């Protein structure tokens, strides 16, 4: 399953301010992927996402885990993608968008 996404390796605040109230995919340095709605950021930029789900890319889990509201420290961010389409996930598929 593929989704259109606009990715940015840049971590400067202006790059993410435009995505407030938008769905983001955030790849973390430990292999997790968090997908949720961006509601807040700061100058670092640390991110706060709501309605979030966590996925493991290293095969630790086969299904997403609902984590609700999360704060992601900028030092753990590997990549940020703006998810541009609503997706329906296959039950038990475990694939992050």
UniProtKB/TrEMBL annotation:
Gene3D superfamilies: 2.30.30.100. GO terms for cellular component: NatC complex. InterPro entries: LSM_dom_sf (IPR010920), LSMD1_Sm (IPR034110), Sm_dom_euk/arc (IPR001163), snRNP_SmB/NAA38-like (IPR050914). Residues 19-76 form the Sm domain. Belongs to the snRNP Sm proteins family. This is Sm domain-containing protein.
